[in-house]
Amino acid sequence: MMQIAIDILNEQDKITITEDCVKLIEDVIRAALAHEGFNRDCFVSVTLTDNDNIRIINNEQRAIDSATDVLSFPVLEFENGEIVENIGDYYEDKLILGDIVLSVERAEEQRIEFGHSFDRELGYLICHSVLHLLGYDHENDAEREIMRSKEEETLETLSLTR
């Protein structure tokens, strides 16, 4: 059976992160990987932060001096849709997919803005980020449509619809 190691670090104190939130994050990561047919032992790191910290990271990594909802830092390289493995892509015999940094403060703001639950917004952002870790992007309309479809299909399996 596939093993998915998920490390969740809460570095903020503005939004209470319950055990249910932690379970939701884990469930969404597992569902997104399953939806993509990814069946390898793997490792994903998730850091929960606030708007101030994600703004700093966004500025350092992308030269964008503003808060954002989620940042994805994939470890894997892809060529023609296939993973190109490197020796450094493993941690404790698990393929490292990458790091997710999520502003739960921004997720709460967007929950209000979009009029749905915090669980829906958190689930959406985690699913979106996992797809980035798997090599998907949304630089053009065609890519955006593919990602949105995959996000909604995955979230539907968890009853996290709009």
Written description of the protein model:
By secondary structure, the protein is an alpha/beta fold. The chain has one domain: 3-Layer(aba) Sandwich (Collagenase (Catalytic Domain)), CATH 3.40.390. Helix 3 (104-114) crosses helix 4 (118-133). Strands 1, 2, 3, 6 and 7 form a five-stranded mixed sheet that branches. Strands 4-5 form a two-stranded antiparallel sheet. The longest helix has 17 residues, at 19-35. 28% of the residues are buried. It has five helices and seven strands. Strand 6 and strand 7 (94-103) form a beta hairpin.
Short overview:
With 162 residues, the protein is of the alpha/beta class. It has a single domain (4-157), classed as Collagenase (Catalytic Domain) (3-Layer(aba) Sandwich).
CATH superfamily: Metalloproteases ("zincins"), catalytic domain
Number of strands: 7
Structural domains: how many: 1
CATH architecture: 3-Layer(aba) Sandwich
Query: Helical residue percent?
Result: 40-55%
* β-sheet strand percentage: 15-25%
Mean of all residue-level pLDDT scores: 95
Poorly predicted regions are none
CATH uppermost class? Alpha Beta
Main β-sheet description: 5 strands, mixed
Distance between the termini: 32 Å
What is the fold named in CATH at topology level? Collagenase (Catalytic Domain)
Radius of gyration: 15 Å
Derived structural class: alpha/beta
Shape: globular
User: How many H/I helical runs?
Assistant: 5
Helix-strand string: EHEHEEEEEHHH
